Amino acid sequence: MLLRNPFTKALRDNRRSMLGWAVSIAAVGAMYAAFWPTMRTPEMTEAMSAYPEGVLEAFNFDDVTSPAGYLGSAVYGLLIPLLVAVFGIGAGARTIAGDEEAGSLDLLLAHPVGRARAALQRFAALVVGLVLTGALLWLALVAIRGPAEFTAVGVGALAAMTLHLVLFGTAFAALAYGVGAATGSRATALGVGAAVAVLGYLANAVLPQVDALAWARDVSPFHWYLDGDPLVNGVQVGGVLLLAGFAAVCVAAGTWRFTRRDIAV
After folding, report:
1. 3-class SS at 60?
2. What is the pLDDT of residues 179-207, one digit of tens each?
3. What does each C-alpha distance from 41 to 50, 62, 78 come to in angstroms?
């Protein structure tokens, strides 16, 4: 029965990996958030002011003087989105291409399950893992708001930022899934996903420091994710639509190609 339900089978097969990533990312986010009280000391403020402005912007540490600014930089600005992107890219590349290279995908497709249905349900299971990651991170931050003294950041604001984070991870997962589904190569999917992540980060944080390259920010998934400061201003419709639209295009293109090519056996 599980073989006839790719969604359930994917959740069952990947439950340990998904839970491990979700718990680890939530723990890292909570750990960094807990450092906020130490950032309010005069010594830390003076130390941060000694860094060049360009360096702080490159690492999304341009505002650490307020709870929202610190969380937006230390938690949601660099390490956590990179971890979520790594999780999404790895899982997306494995969804079709990984199992195809391992020789187990043809076993699933030998059952009365259409290719498109199987692929989309397996990707949907991946999205569940990303949603679980976002939910655990949100719960962890809500739980330590009081002890870590950032109650000025509302529960709704954390939810808005976490929604952007989940969509950000989904966009990279969709890219890796699409490339893997279209080519059948896990290495290619991982390579393209990693390249876009690195270039996207540079386009958002480094290249705009050169005036002639400021346009690069507008095509960066990192910019779509962070633009408008969701942690302060709530959900940003433009960023949400760009991330969701990018993911939809990658999934649609990859699935279309997957249904029309030969499967390696």
Report:
1. coil
2. 999 999 999 999 999 999 999 999 988 88
3. 15, 17, 22
Please state, as a whole number, how many other Cβ atoms lie within 10 Å of the Cβ of residue 215. Answer: 11
Q: Is the pLDDT of residue 18 over 80?
A: yes
pTM: 0.90
C-alpha span between 186 and 117 (Å, rounded): 20
Give 3-state DSSP helix, strand, coil % of the chain, rounded to 5.
Answer: 80, 0, 20
Kindly state the tokens that stand for 229: 């400061």
Cα–Cα dist 33/17, whole Å: 24
Is the CB of residue 81 less than 8 Å from the CB of residue 222? yes
CA atoms within 13 A on the CB side of 103: 1
Distance CA 142, CA 139 (A): 5
Q: Are 95 and 122 in contact (CB under 8 A)?
A: yes
9 and 2 in contact (C-beta within 8 Å)? yes
